[in-house]
Amino acid sequence: MSLEVNGILFPQEPRAGQCLRTFLRELGHFGVKKGCDAGDCGACTVLLDGEPVHSCLIPAFRADGRTVTTIEGLGSDHGAHPMQQAFLDAQGFQCGFCTAGMILTCASLNQAQRTDLGTALKGNICRCTGYRAIEDAILGKTNVEERVEPGAAFGRSLPAPAGPEIVRGQARYTFDTQVDGLLHIKLLRSPHAHARIVAIDKSDALRVPGVHAVLTHEDAPSILISTARHEKDWMDPEDTRILDDVVRFIGQKVAAVVAESEAAAEEACRRIKVDYEILPALIDPEQAMAPGAPIIHPDRTTDNRVADARRNLVAETHGEYGDVAAALATSAVTYEATFHSHRVQHAALETHGGLAWLDDDGVLNVRTSTQVPFLTRRALSDLFELPMDKVRVFCERVGGGFGGKQEMFVEDILALAALRTGRPVRLELTREEQFIATSTRHPMRVNIKAGADADGKLTALQLDVLSNTGAYGNHAGPVMFHALSESIAVYNCPNKRVDGFAVYTNTVPSGAFRGYGLPQTLIAVEAAIDELARQLGISPYDMRRRNIVKPGDPMLSPPPSEFHDVLYGSYGLDQCLDLVERAMQADGSHSDLSPEWLIGDGVALTMIDTVPPAGHFADATIALNNDGGFDLTVGTAEFGNGTSTVHRQIAATTLAATVDRIRLRQSDTAHGGHDTGAYGSAGTFVAGKATHEAAMQLATELKAAAAGAWLCDVASCLLDDEAVVSGVRRMSFAELAKLARERGQPFAAHGNSGGTPRSVGFNVHGFRVAVNKGTGELRILRSVQAADAGIVANPMQCRGQVEGGVAQALGAALYEEMVIDADGRVNNPKFRDYHLPSFADVPRTEVFFAETSDTIGPLGAKSMSESPYNPVAAALGNAIADATGIRFTTPPFKPDRLFPALYDKFRS
Predict the structure, then answer these.
(1) Can you list the alpha helix ranges (DSSP code H) found in 763-794?
(2) I want to staple 569 with a disulfide (CB 3.0 to 4.6 A). Which of 6, 296, 794, 856 is the partner?
(3) What is the rounded CA–CA span in Å between residue 651 and residue 660?
């Protein structure tokens, strides 16, 4: 066989049945990514004789005698291909995992295909961007500011530092490396929703050639842990083992096979014989709470941070301000309804996985796709009784996270296998495993009661929430508390009551997901605000203006919190409401729609605390280099959240330099310091503050050194254009570096942030929709979001975060739904049956920013990666209700869900 890849002939023969994707990666073409292995996502796209194909579907032998072009071969030695440059100019990427395949498809489009991008790009999924920036790239639009004067980087639309590597396929994700002597791990998973393992027979599995170990609960530490990673362990229950003798959901890992090849490991998994004692399974959370229900974790107690194992309750909360029942009885108008949210998958295109090995110094190294390398190191150190300095956890670039990688789903098995075999090991979850065995958004039943007086002032708000945490309690309590907090704290109301229950069931675990509980409750709270406004004849915008909190108002939700550090660092909620209302009013008519189409508008708002409570910590160090540039080291991870760009902007602005003079190292525990992790809207607000503090301290050192050399007052020294200046005197950073070498004292500084006090961010979303009363089809005619992010660190990038959050939320509101059958099995564990939104599914969203400056955040900034998701489903539900006069309470709002009620109302 002769295979030509990027103009080079390769004589290697593929293995029997090997697909082109794995063959190309084994040849070192890491730009060819694995996202689904089913031809659904397009991350593995290559050009075969100039035509884009999904290489995971092409047998490698079919490329014999043909030319293959991967992203690495698209450009030339003289520079990037025009489409690669276009993606750089438009910044048509965020995490970048899909970008290589997306560029190859876009580069192959002819003029006819460019007129119908929805069809042309249907085979390429992007989970991050919302597609607008990708369209900009195809249209040749430039969104970046390439040249910015020294010290002026913050607040400008500067490109991501990894951009050139991303578009050329040179950015390295978790598995984009070659390791000698690598062993492969495959996991045997439970076919039962609830069972006790009576016996496991490994003998046949161990006889498979190439198998090195079969690991079961007998080989693993018996310590109880949580897969959730938080700075404070008390936030999550201890109810999980690496490998357990009781399985509590279909898909739970039972055994790990370590072998020379994936094929050998898979064959060994098939040969493991497991004797199960089947136990009663609970799929419905209402039944799980009922008296006399089987107990899923009978041996867990409050010492394990499980509220009441006898009732299958992981966590519960109750509280009241005032007297809600009395207030409802005397209100001019009231509203009560029950809403149900559903299971949604994160669907990050890079699945969970990693590599682990012991180095020559006996250090356990774990290279993984994680948002929390430092917290994972701490967990591994505790689990395996290793000193912290004998564990290193790091990530290169991460292919999407959305909260799903704030968990430890693979690193514990990797560590166990590496320590047991002494060999480097690899574990990469399949797309199906991602669906059946990681985590989802918490499904919730939300009952809302609300009242208002005749003037539209809220008199009562009551939430009753039942959260289905699945088989394990990772994030169960914090998600429930968060869902009940800011959703009603954003409104002034004298009488508030909450009751919350997080319940175990024998289903795939729920976990952290962008928004962290707020999207589930907001759809109910914001519906109630709209329904009260409708009864009173008040506009939805004015109803909100009369009731939202304002600076000086307490942000209250019962029961009282022990954390009192949330402040109005800046306040732009009023501006956001005004911006969305004006944008929606400016829209024209839709005379092209027939009378079958019902048109309606909807709005919803959200408030979010910028950091989790109880501390979120970050360290940063920055040092002056010999060439006058700077080395900046931070712990936070980059997975499309844009922190790599913002950290350089903060440092460059503080040090009067350009961003190209800031060299960034990040997300590696070997670099020292600590970082709680890239979650909870903390990447800019917490880690960015650490970077700002370190840069300010270094600036002080540089000015003091120059003042000492000039024998002048340090107060007369300023940083300007990569130098210290005082009057007519000027000492460049390169000269200061030389001075440091002569003195033997390098210039370096450290900064840290503890995540307190906290600020709040605000988002308002507006939709105009058309609903076909005869078919249930829904069209989005207008989508607008306004955001209060303080001083926007990077407008282009922040706009992309909003668009991406809206697109992901629309997927959940319109299409995405994990279907769990009566036995607890996920029925649609692949993209083809799950319907991730593609280019054609996502409307363009207009994005506006309030003009505020946060007094707490770095250089006036605050968070904005997480919160754009939160108001989307609520605003969409309100728009549908406005159009149809029907309140739909159970997303996703698919045509088959809408049609029955529409038929009943309009069939005459």
Answers:
(1) none
(2) 856
(3) 11
